Amino acid sequence: MVVFATSVFLLLAFIYWRTAGFMTAQTDETIEAEIAGLAEQYRGRGINGLITIIRERVARDPNAKSIYLLTTDDFLKLAGNIETWPEGARSESGWINFTLNQDVGWRGPERLARARIFEVQGGLRLLVGRDVDELTNLKRVIETAINWGMGITLGLALLGGFLMSRSTTRRIEVINSTSRRIMNGHLSLRIPTRGTDDDFDQLAENLNQMLDRIVYLMEGIRHVSDSIAHDLRTPLTRLRNQLENTLMSVDNDEAREQAGRAVAEADQLLATFNALLRIARLETRGNTADMKPVSLDSLVSDACELYEALAEDKEQVFEQALEHQVMIEGDRDLLFQMVSNLIDNAIKYTPEKGTIRVVVRRDGEDCLFEVSDSGIGIPDDEKDQVFQRFYRVGKSRSSPGNGLGLSLVSAVAEIHQARIELSDYRPGEENPGLTVTIRMPAYVVEKKRIRTTQIDPQSGASGGEQRNSPSESSNV
């Protein structure tokens, strides 16, 4: 808008400068021509001839455009159509701009004039000028037109800039919104194009091609890891069974101990492969889970009841703050695994006599599930990486585990459109602990009236559930 308005302003200013300058120069040339004619009369007929020609011109047209005044050196009028010398700033070349009014003896209406003054031989003074009132009015008209033109230009520039900005912003927002959805896990989406082959379409096509390449590479890596997990699970299971048979057949205590450790290692490997396959199935499953109304507080209460014994073995304080009737929509089995994993992690990484706190509450239109512990915590620079497969925090590398628990939690949260937030439970302490907050959309009964008449949330939350033992949940 500024560039457009400045360009138009410079163009109009140039037109005004050339037009006004041309009209002013034309007036000066007319005055110079009259002065040349009077000078020729003066040279041919003397002072009397000069007075005579001035009087003749004034008598012929007393209200003419030309202005004349011839006086003696003491300003006594000899001829002319004004009576006295006008007041005004006089330039070095003798030009003066003044007002024709009664003060100078002008008999007509007040007008603007421009004249040139010079001295004639014999001490006489001569003023020759022109009425420039029409020229001044014309300049005002041009200035008014320029001002209106600038106003219209600014209006058009604002309108055009708004429309262009709106169109550009709309295109950019489409790219941004699609990119945000892709970053949230919807890798099948692509940025739409208009088919105009403009810069935005070319950018969208380049981004889409880049996404296709990324998805292709990710699918290749995922396929390799899933294939390895699937192919190795069967021989590992056979190996584990053979080790267990060996454990049962040997009589030597040392051999039995070694065989027992081998069985435990095989169980850990099988748990890792099962977790990998479980995460792969969840990521492939997307949002096709069996979504039903679930009482989150009832589900979490069942999980807490299952894990309280583990916390008691470590003499940990196990606190619960469960708000009643906190309803969400989701797959109960998946949600139970997510909750179990988080509680199991909290117990595992909290030292003896530490504190575990589990909270369920409503927060506006969301339902919150929080698990806090007074354990080792997660450094701020690693909180964005703990959801990656096999990633383990430096402090916890010596503890048993495979680094897949939070990956499974992230996969379940993605299916339920939930957001995960990590924060310190006790900021500033040597062991700040960790608070994991799962923020899920609340179940709105009014929008599901037909379904809620067929499903009892209480029975759906507590009936037909299958509990896992703590060891089985942690392995998953």
From TrEMBL:
CDD domains: HAMP, HATPase, HisKA. InterPro entries: HAMP_dom, HATPase_C_sf, HATPase_dom, His_kinase_dom, HisK_dim/P_dom, HisK_dim/P_sf, Sig_transdc_His_kin-like_C, TCS_sensor_his_kinase. Residues 451-476 are annotated as: Disordered. Pfam families: HAMP, HATPase_c, HisKA. It is an enzyme of class 2 (transferase). Residues 452-476 have a biased composition (Polar residues). Keywords: Coiled coil, Kinase, Membrane, Phosphoprotein, Transferase, Transmembrane, Transmembrane helix, Two-component regulatory system. GO terms for molecular function: phosphorelay sensor kinase activity. GO terms for cellular component: plasma membrane. It is found in: Membrane. Its EC number is 2.7.13.3. Residues 166-219 form the HAMP domain. Residues 236-272 form a coiled coil. It catalyses: ATP + protein L-histidine = ADP + protein N-phospho-L-histidine. Residues 227-444 form the Histidine kinase domain. This is histidine kinase. It comes from Marinobacter lipolyticus SM19.
